[in-house]
Design brief:
The complex is a heterodimer of chains A (339) and B (104). Chain A has 339 residues and is α/β, with parallel strands linked by helices. Helices cover 23% and strands 30% of the residues of chain A. Chain A has helices at 18-29, 45-49, 67-78, 135-138, 165-174, 194-205, 302-320, 331-334, and strands at 5-14, 34-37, 55-56, 65-66, 84-86, 91-97, 100-105, 109-118, 124-127, 143-144, 157-161, 180-184, 210-212, 216-223, 226-233, 239-243, 246-249, 253-256, 267-268, 271-273, 286-288, 293-294. In chain A, the strands form six sheets. In chain A, strands 1, 2, 5, 6, 7, 8 and 21 form a seven-stranded mixed beta sheet that branches. Chain A has a five-stranded parallel beta sheet with strand order 10-17-11-12-13. Chain B has helices at 24-30, 54-57, 65-71, and strands spanning 3-7, 13-17, 49-52, 81-83, 96-100. Chain B has a five-stranded mixed beta sheet with strand order 2-1-5-3-4. By secondary structure, chain B is α+β, with helices and mostly antiparallel strands. The longest helix of chain B is centred in the N-terminal third of the chain and has 7 residues, at 24-30. The chains are: A alpha/beta (339), B alpha+beta (104).
Chain lengths: 339, 104
């Protein structure tokens, strides 16, 4: 990274989904400044990434609102508080340095905050990695989840695993340049454009690729970061050893807590355990709200997330301003404060 | 009420009375068993994957094409792997045994 930048704020919010955005509002009403960090390149979290056009019916006073519209309105609502966004960069580290929380992002940015609100939903999006022994040592060298340069595969023996569009599209794109192309999938049917699937079958008939069906990945063989073979097996236990230089693994994206697991928080079944009346986690000064926050009888609703944010903001005020009086006020009395 | 037995990854067996109409995933979550079930039953992930005891597999019903599509994104499948949010509990499932799988 070119240079190290450190920002200072009252509250750092991890996650720019609906609940993260509303955290800006509730903090702002208590005159706390905010910086918001998200792994995705746009605000809105799953509302934007997964269902922008889908109507949501359980937002109070909005009988029917799409994910995209909900985010647009939240952004309008929080505008007066001038939140600073750092998008397209996952928070990779969170450390306490002399009473302040230092958040470091994958882009090398640091945000220093007095309190942290984690509104990370189901976690950051990342590749769904097959659980094969030692796969990490090959990753980005000879095992790939993303392809940036198809030339890498010229005259190479490649195994493509998966049954969706990525697997089929890359099989079509690489069949001509790779020395050998195997497509490993667990069943006959592919979840991809029918025309592309037909093209792939045609290439298979011409002997340009081999469909290895119905097989699943079983293990990897290689030296250092160089793969030499991919072992696959059927449900009946039949094995095959495919000699290969590269594995292209396309099982889609999954949400992962990732680095959040390393911050010393009490995490159970993928949720950060909080005290529901304050949303305080097991670590002082760190709060969790929305889908990522767990407590008995938790409902993973945007509605619940909004309420949790109000609880968390009031609790965070006592951390940010330990010596200041906190007044409970309705917005009808206080109006929109200026920061 | 139908009895259901969950076998944890470490081999521990957890037996419970399940309400007809709930799904096997909902029962597992109610018991706070180690299972992500991240999407909450919306058929949008594969994190409630279980292995159904062979004797019971047929009785858990047909696997829909949508469930098959999501099983494509799961790993270490067996002939009786299912997403347990797609198994509604019925009286016919009294005695069902399912094994949990490791959480990713």
């Amino acid at each position: 990274m070119t240079k190290q930048t450190t920002h200072t704020t009252d509250v750092a919010i991890i996650g720019a989904g609906p609940v993260g955005l509303f955290s800006v509002f509730q903090c702002g009403m208590l005159k706390m400044s905010t910086h918001v960090i998200d792994a995705l390149p746009a605000t809105g979290g799953q509302c934007t990434a997964l269902y922008p056009e889908k109507p949501i019916f359980d937002i109070p006073a909005s009988p029917n609102i799409t994910g995209a519209d909900l985010i647009e309105r939240l952004e309008e609502q929080i505008k007066p508080f001038n939140p600073v966004f750092h998008l397209d960069q996952q928070v990779v580290a969170l450390e306490n340095q002399s009473g302040n929380w230092h958040l470091t992002t994958a882009a090398g940015l640091t945000v220093s905050a007095k309190a942290v609100i984690i509104a990370a939903g189901a976690g950051a999006f990342g590749p769904n990695k097959p659980p094969l022994a030692d796969i990490e040592k090959y990753e980005n060298k000879t095992v790939h989840y993303l392809i940036q340069n198809r030339e890498l595969f010229r005259d190479q023996r490649i195994v493509i695993a998966g049954g969706g569009d990525s697997a089929v599209d890359w099989a079509l794109a690489l069949a001509d340049i790779a020395a050998e192309t195997y497509v490993v999938h667990r069943r006959e049917r592919f979840r991809a454009l029918p025309e592309s699937v037909a093209q792939m079958h045609a290439l298979a008939e011409q002997g340009k690729i081999e469909l290895v069906i119905p097989y699943q990945l079983a293990s990897l063989e290689g030296k250092g970061d160089q793969l030499s073979a991919v072992h696959v097996k059927t449900l009946k236990g039949e094995d095959r050893r495919l000699e290969a230089d590269h594995l292209l693994s396309f099982f889609g994206l999954v949400n992962k807590l990732g680095p959040i697991n390393d911050w010393g928080l009490d995490v159970h079944n993928g949720l950060i355990i909080v005290e529901p009346t304050t949303c305080a986690t097991s670590v002082d000064g760190i709060f969790a709200v929305g889908d990522i926050a767990g407590y008995p009888h938790k409902l993973k609703l945007i509605l619940s997330g909004f309420s949790e944010v109000a609880q968390a903001a009031h609790a965070a005020f006592r951390v940010v301003h330990p010596d200041e009086a906190l007044h409970f006020e309705h917005s009808t009395s206080s109006g929109i404060p200026t920061l | 009420m139908p009895k259901i037995t969950f076998i944890k990854v470490d081999g521990e067996r957890v037996e419970t009375d399940a309400k007809v109409g709930n799904t096997v995933m909902e029962v597992a979550k109610e018991l706070d068993l180690p299972m992500l079930a991240a999407c909450g039953g919306a058929l949008a992930c594969a994190t409630c994957q279980v292995v159904v005891d062979e004797e019971w597999y047929e009785k858990t019903g047909e696997v829909s094409e949508d469930e098959e599509d999501l099983l494509d994104t799961a790993h270490d499948l067996t002939p009786t792997s299912r997403l347990c949010c797609q198994i509604p509990i019925t009286d016919d499932l009294d005695g069902l045994v399912v094994s949990l799988t490791p959480m990713g």
